[in-house]
Design a protein that fits this description.
Blueprint: H1 6-20, H2 22-88
Helix pairs in contact: 1-2
Amino acid sequence: MFDNGMSEWVVVLTVALLVLGPQRALAITRFAGVMLGKAKAALADVQAQVEKELPQEELQVLKDNVVALKRSNVKRKVQEVLAPLEKKG
């Protein structure tokens, strides 16, 4: 998401330390770390739910494809059987 390297973060933290002071900068950094941890946990939870539900959807699509294939095979077999009968009649 952010395309920042370590050197950019060092600059940001140094400026924050100078502007906010050591105690407020540490408190804000700690708060940002906690929020980042919560965001990562929420993202992991959503990802786990998607991975859990996705195979069910894929299995349903696969099942539908198999049923459609069976129907087309049955239809083709019936047509093969009826074709000679129609020629005779």
